[in-house]
Amino acid sequence: MRNERSQILLFGFGKAHDELAGRIVVLGYRALRANDVESALGMLRRPAQPIRVFVFPVGAPFAKRESDLRSLTDASSAFGLRLIVSGDRPSPPEIAALKREGVRFALWKPFHDSELRFVLNMALYHETRSQMRPNPRVPASLVVRMKSGAGEKAGMLYNLSTTGAFIETPRPNMAGGRIALMIEFPDGTLAITASVVFSNVPGNLQRPNLPLGMGAKFVDADPQHIERIAKYVAERTRAYDL
Fold this sequence. Notes:
By secondary structure, this protein is of the alpha/beta class. The protein has helices spanning about 15-25, 35-45, 65-75, 90-100, 115-125, 225-240; strands at about 5-10, 30-35, 55, 80-85, 105-110, 140-150, 150-160, 165-170, 180-185, 190-200, 205, 215-220. Helix 4 (about 90-100) links the parallel strand 4 (about 80-85) and strand 5 (about 105-110).
């Protein structure tokens, strides 16, 4: 059974709306749907079904967006309602208006599932209850080369934090092994050692909502390397703030 905190309310309709709902479900969240403001208000007012995240597309069918969003926020639980806008990036004046209306996060097309997961987790986080890991993993489409006793191969970073990463590769290493990583950052390569924590392989998906690959934890890392990763993580995090 999914944690009730993982309920996401989607507002709108159409093909893009259906596709986003499907992606959210595959990632392990519960996607609730409303086609009008009254339906959304009814869902938010159900005490046994707290909803903390509201996702709507640019151009959603609001009568008056500012007052409708205020009504939805007022109807939400004690945890508050986090607002996420998605779709094609609008003009700067429109983005400024969304900010004034309380929208905090944005998912501009095209966005990968790792980005969708990250923004939903950020929105679900409630600072007073320490529900988020202290070292958030940001989406990271970076090439990484891996060396171990089995040789050298290449993969892609799916996400990255100051403590570890998930590496997307069809040939992950076994859990417990050590690998030398060469991460291709935009400003140059960073070499760091990691220990494989788990592997996602066909027939044995340790994390069904992640791609084939492996989760790795950094070991014996140089503080300067961690500082460099932290800078990248901070920059990527800001990219999803409206």
